[in-house]
């Protein structure tokens, strides 16, 4: 699928203006396949995270799943719908959104996904939502790449809002092997196993260039090397 004009313009702005202000660094791009159904499964700290994943990935476009309430604003709704974002109802069953997610992956698209289900206010990894495993189970054969975002909660915080400029990063890890789980019939235990595997893979991803952007002020102690946006 070709990225929309608004998506491309937004990505150009973020990569050339916003992210350099935040000393954005990225690593592990070699784990992102050039084609095929791809799910980027990431931790979630801030509303900035979709921007970080979309700009950090080598593939364009990235499709995003966001809570339906964000589409109620006429301006935001227009922007989201034209930047490959689709809504999902929170706290209930939304088979239409699940099916759309599944169809995108089956069609070879790239979809971002937050297994925690909500933002972390302090940057600490949260438990994965078992419903995440159910959604992934519906996409057998997809490449599931874990991603670890660091530092975004210190820029745009869930509780405090904008908190100032701060270095941020994202690192991608090796694809998660879910062959055993996909071979089994779906159920609570299987879904929980998928979620646990994905969260463990996210937790295992080391900081970019050895710098933990969640550990202020240590994150500013070392200069960037060869992991800047290109």
Description:
This protein is α/β, with parallel strands linked by helices. The protein has a single domain (5-12, 19-220), classed as 3-Layer(aba) Sandwich (Glycerol-3-phosphate (1)-acyltransferase). The protein has seven helices and nine strands, in the order H-E-E-H-E-H-E-H-E-H-E-E-E-E-H-H. The strands form two sheets. It has a seven-stranded mixed sheet, with helices on both faces. A hairpin with a 3-residue loop joins strand 7 and strand 8 (161-162). The chain starts with a helix and ends in a 27-residue tail after the last helix.
Topology, number of strands: 9
Percent in helix: 25-40%
The succession of helices and strands, N to C, reads HEEHEHEHEHEEEEHH
Overall 3D form: globular
Biggest pleated sheet: 7 strands, mixed
Unreliable sequence segments: 217-227
How far is it from the N-terminal to the C-terminal residue, by CA? 22 Å
Please state the structural category: alpha/beta
Count of DSSP H/I helices: 7
- Alpha carbon gyration radius: 17 Å
Q: What is the CATH homologous superfamily assignment?
A: Glycerol-3-phosphate (1)-acyltransferase
Q: How do the strands line up in the largest sheet?
A: 1-9-6-2-5-3-4
Count of separate structural domains: 1
Label the CATH architecture.
Answer: 3-Layer(aba) Sandwich
The CATH topology, please? Answer: Glycerol-3-phosphate (1)-acyltransferase
Q: pLDDT average, as an integer? A: 91
CATH class: Alpha Beta
In terms of DSSP E residues, the strand content is 15-25%
């Amino acid at each position: 699928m070709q990225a929309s004009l608004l998506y491309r313009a937004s990505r150009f702005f973020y990569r050339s203006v916003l992210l350099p202000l935040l000393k954005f660094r990225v690593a592990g791009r070699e784990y992102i396949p050039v084609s095929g159904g791809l799910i980027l499964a990431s931790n979630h700290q801030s509303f900035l995270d979709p921007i970080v994943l979309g700009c950090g990935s080598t593939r364009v476009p990235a499709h995003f799943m966001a809570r339906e309430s964000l589409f109620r604003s006429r301006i935001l709704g227009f922007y989201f719908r034209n930047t490959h974002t689709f809504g999902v109802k929170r706290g209930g069953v939304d088979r239409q959104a699940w099916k759309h997610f599944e169809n995108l992956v089956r069609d070879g698209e790239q979809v971002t996904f937050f297994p925690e289900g909500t933002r972390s206010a302090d940057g600490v990894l949260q438990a994965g939502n078992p419903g995440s495993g159910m959604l992934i189970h519906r996409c057998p054969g997809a490449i599931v790449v874990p991603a670890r975002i660091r530092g975004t909660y210190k820029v745009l915080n869930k509780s405090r809002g904008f908190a100032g400029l701060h270095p941020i990063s994202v690192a991608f890890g090796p694809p998660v092997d879910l062959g055993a789980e996909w071979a089994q019939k779906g159920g609570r235990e299987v879904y929980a196993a998928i979620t646990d595997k994905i969260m463990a893979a996210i937790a295992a991803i080391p900081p970019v260039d050895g710098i933990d952007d969640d550990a202020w002020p240590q994150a500013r102690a070392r200069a960037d090397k060869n992991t800047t946006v290109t």
